[in-house]
Amino acid sequence: MKRFALALDLIDDPDIVREYENWHKAENGWPEIKKSILDANIVLMEIYRTGNRLFMLMETNDQFSAKQKAAMDAANPKVQEWETLMAKFQQPLAWAKEGEKWVYMDKIFQLP
């Protein structure tokens, strides 16, 4: 089992944040997106928000590959449609690389 933490910012506007959250309610999620996540060997995904900052916790099985997930997403028209829709709410972190949305975070502490 692998665990990843990722971050992304939303455009800092209450209406945009509210609409983004609405799209992520269980009843509004697209089944094709959920399937694409599970097909990529992701077994748990949670997104948290404070202000306009998003934090994603992702647990995967040992076969997960970020490169393979990116290739699968690029080849999936429904995922591309979803990404285009979500892009109007999102803004990259200042330190994100060109074209990067969600940025992998480094773990700096663990208890015990």
Automatic annotation (TrEMBL):
GO terms for molecular function: racemase and epimerase activity, acting on carbohydrates and derivatives. It comes from the Bacteria. Transmembrane segments: none annotated. InterPro entries: Carb_Metab_Mutarotase, Dimeric_a/b-barrel, Rham/fucose_mutarotase. PANTHER family: UPF0734 PROTEIN DDB_G0273871/DDB_G0273177, UPF0734 PROTEIN DDB_G0273871_DDB_G0273177. This is L-fucose mutarotase.
